[in-house]
Amino acid sequence: MGKLSAMPGRLSAMPQRLARPRDPDGHSAEAEPWRAWYNLKRWKLLRIATFVRDLFTCQMPDCRRIETDTALLVCDHVERHNGDPRLFWDERNLQTLCKPCHDKTKQAQERRARVGPA
Ligand SMILES: [Zn+2]
Predict the structure, then answer these.
(1) How many A from CA of 62 to the centre of ligand 1?
(2) pLDDT in the model for residue 67
(3) 20 to 30 A Cα–Cα from 84, which one of 17, 34, 90, 110?
């Protein structure tokens, strides 16, 4: 799994994470105003366009699940946008993931981000 050198960072990050109030998606609305972008019609259209482009197929190479119920699909940002509108709205930065793959990759990414360069 992870490198041994990453362990202290990950362990020290855990209590903070538990203490911070978060919504079910694991994000804080106040700290992340870009969350509102997900409610825009522009995003909903872009999301569906991404699913159509990817043929409703999870883009994880070892998954490739075809899911016709869009409630079970996630329009994922390949590169974390961190509130950058250029990355957020770039269709080339979007991919279709099934929910299980999305939850798995996002958790791994956020863990990497948290233990990244201090
Ligand atoms: Zn998948």
Answers:
(1) 8
(2) 97
(3) 17
> 106 vs 49, 100, 112, CA distance in Å?
21, 10, 10
CA of residue 107 to ligand 1 center, whole Å = 14
Helix axes 99-115, 7-19, angle to 10 degrees: 110
Residues forming a β-bridge with 73: 98
pLDDT score for 101: 96
Give the distance (Å) from ligand 1 centre to CA of residue 17: 26
pTM: 0.68
- Dihedral, CA atoms, 4, 107, 95, 67, nearest 10 degrees? 120
Q: Ligand 1 mean position to 67 CA, how many Å?
A: 9
In this prediction, residue 19 carries a pLDDT of: 47
Evaluate whether 39 touches 25 at the Cβ level (below 8 Å): no
